[in-house]
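Narrative summary of target 7.
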Amino acid sequence: MATLPLSFLVTPALVEGPWHKVAVIAVAYAVTLVFSGPIVRYFVLPRNLPKPVRDPNGPRFDSSAVIGKCENLIVLTFTLLGQGTGIAVVFAAKALVRAEDIKRNPGFYLGGTMVNLIWAVLVGGAARLLIAGI
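Modeled conformation, tokenized:
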């Protein structure tokens, strides 16, 4: 029985050399972390809202932003490793942890999670294409 050549599915890596590949991976992490917040805000939050005033006695950081950045790091790592199942676990875990928030405002929390996941997967997929050709 003859097998079909699948060479059209596998493209050669566009970036050669170990240091170039490390640079692509570092840029992928930087791009994911720097642009994920603005992209999520663009797609999830209503337009033309005044910027909220930060409480000087409040927490030093926004826990949602920290959770989102950690989510970005994990999803990008799973994408670079080709572990799609891990991405599903991240999504399921976040849905469980944020169940009460999702009930109150599903568009914000589910929409933000989906945009965040899609962004990390797109950047990871582009980096993977550059360094591995897949």
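Residues 39 and 115 are 8 Å apart (CA to CA).
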